[in-house]
Design a protein that fits this description.
- The complex is a heterotetramer, with two copies of chain A (about 250 residues) and two copies of chain B (about 325 residues).
- By secondary structure, chain A is α/β, with parallel strands linked by helices.
- Chain A has two domains: about 80 residues, Elongation Factor Tu (Ef-tu), domain 3; about 150 residues, Rossmann fold, CATH 3.40.50.80.
- Chain A has a seven-stranded mixed sheet with strand order 11-10-9-8-12-13-16, with helices on both faces. In chain A, strands 1-2-6-5 form a four-stranded antiparallel sheet. A three-stranded antiparallel sheet of chain A has the order 4-3-7, with no helix packed on it.
- Chain B is an alpha/beta fold and about 325 residues long.
- Chain B has a single domain, classed as Alpha-Beta Barrel (TIM Barrel).
- Chain B is about 35% helix and about 20% strand.
- In chain B, helix 3 packs parallel to helix 4.
- The longest helix of chain B is centred in the N-terminal third of the chain and has 15 residues.
- The chains are: A alpha/beta (about 250), B alpha/beta (about 325).
- The structure holds flavin-adenine dinucleotide (2 copies), flavin mononucleotide (2 copies) and FE2/S2 (inorganic) cluster (2 copies).
- The site of one flavin-adenine dinucleotide has 25 residues of chain A, from strand 4, strand 6, helix 2 and helix 3.
């Protein structure tokens, strides 16, 4: 662990030095030993192959994240990764948009950092949070040159409401636009609904995990199989799925 | 030190450490993190005649020193296993134990029959903790007669070494072990998970999609040791012990309680290399405890062989 | 917030937190560390007609997030209890639950009869996890008929509120709860300890003087919750839940699973004041979770009342 | 925690500030929260009512003592105590002798510190250890003015053998002498045997404990009851028992 920041109340970003992790695809995750009997899955917020550093930005919600947040500089972390399937690179000739809610924003930022130079048109980032102090990485997205729309549940910053409003407007203008979304399940469900669950709408999902490598079949979500609904592993077939692959209610 | 273990029907393990069913997939999943050729064996995820879909998520939940799982025995069926997974396993230099499941006695029989025709399988492990659909859903493993019926059906189909995996969710683990021994089992593996549950307080509902789940991990080690100790004293066939093993000392506890080999499950999720580390440490640990060979450790705390009562009395009687 | 709990036959607790039998002695032992008047009640160490000597030491052993004990139900008998311990308990401002044990149905009956003649006892708790000496040593709690016989004998002797304490070491905890309900139990308490063991690796022998022991502490919480959840759905009488409670959130889990009150055991050894802390925290925790009163929490994760399946489906179906 | 020393390899002595603990009777013990589900019983090695400090000297043997040994200065420890029955003060008109093996020595030192000024004749301390480097508190006993006899199992310091040899010689000279012993069970058994299990031979015992306060009946040893053998609680009736009270094989 080489660096530590507190980007928002109750949120910590940790940098670790590991060339292997730094080579991850955005959307992939790290499976981290903390306290407790299971590892904790956390996505990468920054991936820097040059320095060999990777960062993870997480919210402190329970024993594991609290333990991780309290690690001191120089601590050696036991991390399995990079794991899972990351975001596919967007087709640079067509518009794309990032839609993140809460701690769903960091993995999209890792993606944006890698893709933005290749983008022909200015990409859009729609960032949602509960309240002003919890809007993550806004400045960083602006520095990448993104058009940034902010929504907060309480209206304390940007538009009042969820990311779905701005996304609907963006989709109205860019009906075939590529969408990359990460956030709470309810938000992803809505993203799936208004984007028509297309094969170029990508969503990074969360699920309780055991192994993280595909062995235990714990982390499943319901997929749109050839012979009806089937279960897919978030740790292996995901965490990034296309809207087309998933079944939401 | 030679760690090799000889089990019935010519089953030879290079060491007593086997990956437990359901925690190690079909091999390739962990292959980039673990050197599989170091393991004594691997028991694959339970196999049924047809694919089973499994339970709705969430399927795991953390508990004090344990986990609950309600995977619901999801698997893609024995046929897909033979075609898709077995080729990889045949290439690995470790023993392959095929774990079999069924909703009826006949389903167990079918899987056993199918697997017996395939090269590359070294043993069968019959997981009797499945609901017996014809008998109202209580598991085969909770009733000695039904457990014996499953074993007899499997025995009819195969000459492979067969172990039956004992459920701890019964008044009679020992009686069940005896019943399956009489029905032709070559070994007992013990134990499977204990039925437990957790509440998702925030959402005011059972935490697992399957409502109840199987408890595994260090929390259950004392229960597993007790059952291994009791079964090892009763049956004449070898016992493969498991339940909460997370260290080399834990392995020694199981061996002393009478296990000829062990399986390691939940700890792999946290430390995928732990089994390898145990294999590496075992010779030194055994030597330090004053044993000359692995075989001498097995059963050394059992009555008769242990210095239990005598030392106890020496201290306060 | 009013934490009072009303139980059958006029038993009223000022709050749902009761000290579990065997972990709180007869009261005075912890009196200088804990304010007993803050507790909803205390269940005393199991009482038999005559003194029981208990098992040889060692009698406790630490396990992952739990402990094993083989006290062997040592106690000085109901007569000495009435003369020596009850006067102190009568002076304490908390409910007194007398936990009763026996080797035969008649021994349970005797203790119940003796205690019913004494003022200062608010309820009986029948511990059916004792070996049934006439029936070969398997415990009363492992068989519905035998459990019902014990309860019927106790009921014959007393008008006190009676709870029967369910053993988890059986295939049929629910059937046993139903059987004792039919035999006149006013409440079920669940669960007692799970039979486990540990090996003293250094000395190559079982760690406990009694060889096997009862597993308690956080490790067993998932099993306890599952049994409480199943029993609460089946019987009409209230359930007092226990097993591994160490925090206010744990208490909430048991309440949501259907317990009307809880008992707290092993954690007291580590943190004698934990029960007091829980009593203090409970109102705030319940309020934060969106409940108006304690009663609304009870059973809120049970099928029907819980939003379990609907929310689950809302997420992935 | 106010002070920390390493008196011998694998042994740590910790001072805590607590007037309540400092008021303990030598032979009583502290029940300490460490790692694990049970507290750890540890005797007091020093009791200083003036400063309000009490010390515990322990050997690192497992998870709990390792955790305790690693606590940093200023750490707040959760200690229940003082618990149990300590050593009764010797009759100053008659000779007395302390017999300690290994970590049985520290509680005897706490006793010696309190009693020595009142002693009419020079008391004797017989200290046993496995090897030279593990002889505890020798210098401290000498400073109190005790006659100090050392035994080591390997003969690397003092007499080769156990404390039983010197004790037998002391008892030969002082047949009615008062004996205070603490150490491994085997040693105490031998002390009981050669001293005739008298009511002025006192021994501090160890036993696995649950509550530490007499509630759980875990910590028993076999006593010499009026109606035959009975179990006594080390945490409450002990840890100090007279030879007369105990049954050794
Ligand atoms: C692929 C993936 C990527 C993630 N990336 C991030 C990220 O970048 N930033 C971030 O803040 N969070 C992220 N999460 C969520 C994060 O894993 C949980 O917040 C974390 O595991 C909580 O652990 P805890 O011990 O603090 O909480 P506890 O509630 O004490 O954890 C108990 C158990 O539940 C599991 N758990 C709890 N919440 C979740 C959850 N939301 N998803 C999966 N398992 C959970 C824990 O892993 C643990 O096994 C991600 C989850 C997944 C599946
Ligand atoms: C009254 C009393 C006074 C003691 N005073 C001292 C002292 O002054 N200095 C000292 O070094 N040691 C003393 N001991 C022994 C000390 O309690 C153990 O060494 C310690 O508990 C070991 O804990 P652990 O976690 O390091 O070992 P582990 O082996 O990991 O402990 C596992 C469990 O066993 C118990 N245990 C292990 N060894 C003993 C033992 N010998 N006696 C009782 N319980 C044990 C632990 O408390 C714990 O519950 C005393 C014991 C008693 C009963
Ligand atoms: C996620 C998971 C899946 C499991 N699946 C199976 C299975 O398919 N068949 C089986 O016999 N046992 C299965 N088990 C039980 C384990 O093989 C083992 O008996 C149990 O977990 C106890 O060992 P442990 O504590 O080392 O994990 C599973 C356990 C877990 C945790
Ligand atoms: C040391 C000890 C002694 C116990 N003695 C009794 C007893 O006499 N009667 C009884 O019904 N239960 C007894 N129990 C069981 C507890 O009351 C309780 O059911 C069990 O420990 C689970 O709760 P816990 O995990 O909170 O300890 C005892 C438990 C322990 C740890
Ligand atoms: S977490 Fe084990 S399969 Fe995904
Ligand atoms: S430790 Fe509980 S009675 Fe002594």
């Amino acid at each position: 662990m080489v660096k530590r920041q507190v980007p928002a109340p109750g949120h910590v970003e940790l940098w670790v030095h590991s060339p292997v992790l730094a080579g991850a695809t955005p959307g992939q995750f790290a499976h981290v030993v903390t306290q407790g009997t299971l590892r904790r899955p956390i996505s990468f917020s920054r991936l820097d192959v040059d320095t060999g550093n990777a960062a993870m930005l997480f919210q402190v919600v329970g024993v594991g994240t609290r333990w991780l947040a309290n690690q001191e500089m120089g601590a050696v972390l036991d991390i399995l990764g990079p794991l899972g399937r990351g975001f596919p690179v967007p087709d640079a000739r067509r518009p794309w948009c990032l839609v993140g809610g809460g701690v769903g924003i960091p993995p999209l930022f890792a993606a944006a950092s890698q893709w933005t130079s290749a983008a022909r048109m200015t990409p859009t980032a729609i960032l949602g949070a509960r309240t002003e102090s919890l809007v993550l990485l806004e400045e960083e997205f602006r520095q990448l040159g993104h058009v940034v729309w902010i929504t907060t549940d309480d209206g304390s910053r940007g538009m009042k409401g969820t990311v779905i409003g701005p996304l609907a407007r963006w989709l109205a203008k860019n009906p075939q636009g590529q969408v990359y979304a990460c956030g709470p399940t309810a938000m992803l469900r809505a993203v799936g609904a208004i984007s028509g669950q297309r094969d170029d709408v990508w969503m990074a999902l969360e699920q309780r995990m055991g192994c993280g490598v595909g062995a235990c079949l714990a982390c499943v979500v319901l997929g749109n199989g050839p012979e009806g609904p089937d279960y897919r592993r978030v740790c292996t077939e995901g965490p990034v799925f296309s809207g087309e692959e998933l079944i939401f209610p | 030190m030679n760690l090799a273990v000889s089990l019935p029907r010519g089953l030879k393990l290079k060491n007593p450490i086997i990956a437990a069913s359901g925690t190690f997939g079909f091999g390739p999943e962990y292959a980039s993190f673990v050197d599989m050729s170091v393991l004594g064996g691997i028991s694959v995820k339970g196999l049924s005649p047809d694919p089973w879909p499994g339970n709705p998520p969430p399927r795991v939940w953390e508990t004090p020193m344990g986990i609950l799982n309600s995977i619901g025995l999801q698997n893609h069926g024995v046929e897909v296993f033979c075609q898709q997974d077995l080729p990889f396993l045949r290439e690995t230099d470790t023993r392959v134990v095929a774990n079999i499941i069924g909703h009826t006695v006949d389903e167990y029989r079918q899987v056993a029959a199918r697997l017996s025709r395939e090269p590359g399988i070294d043993a069968l492990e019959v997981n009797i903790s499945c609901p017996n659909i014809k008998e109202g859903g209580m598991s085969f493993g909770q009733n000695p007669d039904q457990a014996a019926q499953v074993m007899a059906a499997v025995r009819f189909e195969t000459d492979l070494p067969v172990m039956v995996k004992i459920s701890p969710n019964t008044t009679y683990p020992v009686e069940i072990a005896e019943a399956v021994e009489d029905a032709g089992a070559d070994m007992i593996s013990a134990i499977n998970t204990l039925v437990g549950m957790a509440i998702d307080v925030k959402h005011r509902r059972p935490a697992l999609g399957g409502v109840t789940g199987g408890l595994s991990g260090p929390a259950i080690k004392p229960i597993a040791l007790r059952i291994v100790y009791e079964v090892a004293q009763t049956v004449k066939i070898p016992v493969v012990g498991m339940g909460g093993i997370s260290s080399t000392m834990d392995v020694v506890e199981f061996l002393m309680a009478g296990a000829a080999a062990v399986m390691v499950g939940t700890i792999t999720f946290q430390y995928p290399r732990r089994m390898q580390e145990i294999v590496a440490e075992l010779p030194e640990v055994i030597t330090e405890l004053g044993f000359d060979c692995l075989q001498d450790v097995v059963g050394s705390a059992l009555p008769g062989r242990s210095n239990a009562s005598s030392m106890m009395e020496a201290e306060y009687e």
